[in-house]
Amino acid sequence: VDILLDVVEADLHTLAQPQLIGIPSESQQEILASLKKVIGKTATSENINTVNSEVTSYFRRKGFHFAKIETRAEHVNSKTLLTFTINQGQRYRVNKLIVRGNSATKKRRISRHFDHLKKEVYNAEESDKATRKLLNTGVFERVTVTPLTKENGMLDLDIEVKEGDTITTQTYIGADSYEGAIIGLSYRDLNFVDKMWQFNARG
User: Fold this and answer.
1) Using an 8 Å Cβ cutoff, are 167 and 189 in contact?
2) Each residue of 76-95: pLDDT tens digit?
3) What are phi and psi of 26, to 5 degrees?
4) For residue 179, how many C-alpha atoms fall within 13 Å in the half-sphere facing its CB?
5) CB 160 within 8 Å of CB 134
6) How confident is the model at residue 199 (pLDDT cuts 50, 70, 90)?
7) Nearest to 134 by CA among 151, 106, 112
8) What count of Cα atoms within 13 Å lies in the side-chain half-sphere of residue 99?
9) 3-state DSSP call for residue 5?
10) pTM of this prediction?
11) Interacting residues of 200 by C-beta distance below 8 A, sequence separation 6+
12) How far apart are CA 115 and CA 120, in angstroms?
Protein backbone atom coordinates (compact mmCIF):
# COMPACT_ATOMS: atom_id res chain seq x y z
CA VAL A 1 0.00 0.00 0.00
CA ASP A 2 1.40 3.34 -1.01
CA ILE A 3 0.78 6.25 1.35
CA LEU A 4 1.14 9.79 0.07
CA LEU A 5 1.69 12.55 2.60
CA ASP A 6 1.07 16.10 1.50
CA VAL A 7 2.95 18.36 3.94
CA VAL A 8 2.49 22.11 3.85
CA GLU A 9 5.23 23.94 5.72
CA ALA A 10 3.92 26.74 7.91
CA ASP A 11 5.80 29.75 9.25
CA LEU A 12 7.92 29.19 12.33
CA HIS A 13 6.55 30.66 15.54
CA THR A 14 8.72 33.13 17.39
CA LEU A 15 8.60 34.10 21.06
CA ALA A 16 6.68 37.26 21.80
CA GLN A 17 7.47 39.33 24.88
CA PRO A 18 5.89 37.39 27.75
CA GLN A 19 3.18 38.85 29.97
CA LEU A 20 3.91 38.95 33.71
CA ILE A 21 0.78 39.39 35.82
CA GLY A 22 0.65 40.00 39.56
CA ILE A 23 4.08 41.49 40.24
CA PRO A 24 5.42 45.09 40.49
CA SER A 25 6.54 46.82 37.29
CA GLU A 26 10.13 46.92 38.57
CA SER A 27 10.20 43.14 38.82
CA GLN A 28 8.63 42.87 35.36
CA GLN A 29 11.35 45.05 33.84
CA GLU A 30 14.13 43.07 35.53
CA ILE A 31 12.76 39.78 34.25
CA LEU A 32 12.17 41.07 30.72
CA ALA A 33 15.71 42.45 30.61
CA SER A 34 17.06 38.98 31.40
CA LEU A 35 14.96 37.48 28.58
CA LYS A 36 16.17 39.74 25.78
CA LYS A 37 18.42 36.96 24.48
CA VAL A 38 15.44 34.73 23.61
CA ILE A 39 12.56 37.14 22.85
CA GLY A 40 12.02 37.14 19.09
CA LYS A 41 13.81 33.82 18.66
CA THR A 42 12.15 30.66 17.33
CA ALA A 43 9.71 29.17 19.85
CA THR A 44 11.61 25.93 20.32
CA SER A 45 11.18 23.78 23.42
CA GLU A 46 14.66 24.86 24.52
CA ASN A 47 13.85 28.58 24.29
CA ILE A 48 10.48 28.17 26.01
CA ASN A 49 12.19 26.25 28.82
CA THR A 50 14.75 29.05 29.11
CA VAL A 51 11.95 31.57 29.67
CA ASN A 52 10.25 29.36 32.27
CA SER A 53 13.54 28.72 34.06
CA GLU A 54 14.50 32.41 34.17
CA VAL A 55 11.12 33.46 35.59
CA THR A 56 11.29 30.78 38.28
CA SER A 57 14.93 31.54 39.12
CA TYR A 58 14.18 35.24 39.54
CA PHE A 59 11.87 34.60 42.49
CA ARG A 60 14.22 32.02 44.01
CA ARG A 61 17.00 34.62 43.96
CA LYS A 62 14.81 37.37 45.39
CA GLY A 63 13.66 35.47 48.48
CA PHE A 64 10.20 34.48 47.22
CA HIS A 65 10.99 30.79 47.57
CA PHE A 66 7.34 29.76 47.78
CA ALA A 67 6.04 31.91 44.91
CA LYS A 68 3.22 30.30 42.93
CA ILE A 69 3.53 30.64 39.17
CA GLU A 70 0.95 29.61 36.57
CA THR A 71 1.92 29.55 32.90
CA ARG A 72 -0.27 29.72 29.79
CA ALA A 73 0.90 29.55 26.17
CA GLU A 74 -0.98 30.96 23.16
CA HIS A 75 -0.01 30.68 19.51
CA VAL A 76 -1.34 33.54 17.38
CA ASN A 77 -0.14 34.95 14.04
CA SER A 78 3.15 33.04 14.08
CA LYS A 79 3.85 34.28 17.62
CA THR A 80 4.01 32.27 20.84
CA LEU A 81 2.87 34.31 23.83
CA LEU A 82 3.69 33.03 27.32
CA THR A 83 1.60 34.50 30.13
CA PHE A 84 2.76 34.11 33.74
CA THR A 85 0.30 34.71 36.57
CA ILE A 86 2.34 35.09 39.73
CA ASN A 87 1.59 35.14 43.44
CA GLN A 88 4.90 36.11 45.04
CA GLY A 89 3.88 35.24 48.58
CA GLN A 90 6.04 36.10 51.57
CA ARG A 91 9.65 37.19 51.18
CA TYR A 92 11.99 35.55 53.68
CA ARG A 93 15.35 36.20 55.31
CA VAL A 94 17.55 33.51 56.82
CA ASN A 95 17.52 33.39 60.62
CA LYS A 96 19.63 30.44 61.77
CA LEU A 97 21.28 27.27 60.48
CA ILE A 98 20.33 23.88 61.92
CA VAL A 99 22.76 21.02 61.24
CA ARG A 100 21.59 17.43 61.71
CA GLY A 101 22.78 13.94 60.85
CA ASN A 102 26.49 14.42 61.50
CA SER A 103 28.23 12.02 63.86
CA ALA A 104 31.92 12.58 63.13
CA THR A 105 32.09 15.93 61.33
CA LYS A 106 31.97 19.03 63.50
CA LYS A 107 28.79 21.09 62.96
CA ARG A 108 30.76 24.30 62.48
CA ARG A 109 32.62 22.76 59.56
CA ILE A 110 29.28 22.15 57.85
CA SER A 111 27.42 25.35 58.72
CA ARG A 112 30.23 27.64 57.57
CA HIS A 113 29.38 26.80 53.96
CA PHE A 114 26.03 28.58 54.50
CA ASP A 115 27.16 31.45 56.73
CA HIS A 116 26.93 34.00 53.93
CA LEU A 117 23.16 33.39 53.72
CA LYS A 118 22.38 34.34 57.35
CA LYS A 119 20.36 37.54 57.88
CA GLU A 120 20.13 37.99 54.11
CA VAL A 121 17.13 37.63 51.82
CA TYR A 122 16.93 33.89 51.18
CA ASN A 123 18.55 33.08 47.85
CA ALA A 124 17.67 29.48 47.01
CA GLU A 125 20.20 29.37 44.17
CA GLU A 126 23.04 30.39 46.50
CA SER A 127 21.85 27.71 48.91
CA ASP A 128 22.03 25.17 46.08
CA LYS A 129 25.61 26.26 45.31
CA ALA A 130 26.63 25.85 48.95
CA THR A 131 25.05 22.40 49.00
CA ARG A 132 26.96 21.31 45.89
CA LYS A 133 30.21 22.66 47.36
CA LEU A 134 29.62 20.66 50.54
CA LEU A 135 28.93 17.49 48.54
CA ASN A 136 32.07 18.04 46.49
CA THR A 137 34.21 17.66 49.63
CA GLY A 138 33.54 13.93 49.36
CA VAL A 139 32.69 13.69 53.06
CA PHE A 140 28.94 13.23 52.59
CA GLU A 141 26.75 10.82 50.67
CA ARG A 142 23.78 13.15 50.87
CA VAL A 143 23.05 16.77 51.86
CA THR A 144 19.45 17.98 52.09
CA VAL A 145 18.64 21.63 52.81
CA THR A 146 15.06 22.47 53.79
CA PRO A 147 13.82 26.04 54.49
CA LEU A 148 11.61 26.15 57.59
CA THR A 149 9.44 29.24 57.56
CA LYS A 150 8.59 31.34 60.61
CA GLU A 151 5.80 33.88 61.14
CA ASN A 152 7.97 37.01 61.16
CA GLY A 153 9.29 36.76 57.60
CA MET A 154 12.32 34.75 58.70
CA LEU A 155 13.24 31.14 58.01
CA ASP A 156 15.69 28.61 59.36
CA LEU A 157 17.75 26.38 57.09
CA ASP A 158 17.60 22.75 58.15
CA ILE A 159 20.79 21.11 56.85
CA GLU A 160 20.61 17.33 57.10
CA VAL A 161 23.68 15.33 56.11
CA LYS A 162 24.59 11.69 55.72
CA GLU A 163 28.28 11.05 56.15
CA GLY A 164 30.06 8.66 53.83
CA ASP A 165 33.16 6.53 54.17
CA THR A 166 35.98 9.07 54.01
CA ILE A 167 39.00 6.81 54.61
CA THR A 168 40.57 4.76 51.83
CA THR A 169 43.70 2.63 51.87
CA GLN A 170 45.42 1.02 48.92
CA THR A 171 48.39 -1.29 48.53
CA TYR A 172 50.74 -0.61 45.64
CA ILE A 173 53.73 -2.37 44.12
CA GLY A 174 56.58 -0.53 42.47
CA ALA A 175 60.14 -1.14 41.36
CA ASP A 176 63.45 0.43 42.25
CA SER A 177 66.64 -0.01 40.21
CA TYR A 178 68.66 -0.68 43.37
CA GLU A 179 66.25 -2.36 45.77
CA GLY A 180 64.04 -4.24 43.33
CA ALA A 181 60.32 -4.63 44.09
CA ILE A 182 58.76 -2.19 46.55
CA ILE A 183 55.46 -2.81 48.33
CA GLY A 184 53.77 0.16 49.96
CA LEU A 185 50.51 1.45 51.38
CA SER A 186 48.68 4.69 50.59
CA TYR A 187 46.21 6.27 53.02
CA ARG A 188 43.66 8.99 52.34
CA ASP A 189 41.23 10.68 54.75
CA LEU A 190 38.76 13.29 53.46
CA ASN A 191 37.62 14.17 56.99
CA PHE A 192 40.86 14.25 58.96
CA VAL A 193 40.33 14.90 62.72
CA ASP A 194 36.62 15.47 61.88
CA LYS A 195 37.35 18.92 60.40
CA MET A 196 36.87 18.09 56.69
CA TRP A 197 40.60 18.43 56.11
CA GLN A 198 42.16 16.18 53.46
CA PHE A 199 45.09 14.06 54.56
CA ASN A 200 47.17 11.84 52.29
CA ALA A 201 50.03 9.57 53.25
CA ARG A 202 52.11 7.05 51.40
CA GLY A 203 54.76 4.73 52.67
Assistant:
1) yes
2) 889 999 999 999 999 999 99
3) -60, -40
4) 7
5) no
6) low
7) 112
8) 18
9) coil
10) 0.68
11) 186, 187, 188, 189
12) 10
